[in-house]
Amino acid sequence: MLPVTKKSKMRKRTRRSHLAVRPVHLIPCPQCSQSKLPHAACPNCGYVNAHTRIKVGTQES
Ligand SMILES: [Zn+2]
Fold it and tell me: Who wins on pLDDT, 41 or 59?
């Protein structure tokens, strides 16, 4: 199947103007100031908020 009408370079580039990959947004952890994703536990120290902290590292069980 072929396209019905040719899309111009400008139309193609205008459509793809929204397709750029945005960089990952990182914020510093308030506890250890390492970069972490917002609204996620810190992978370094496990800090979530003032009341919550999860276990991180190899010390499972
Ligand atoms: Zn942290």
Answer: 41
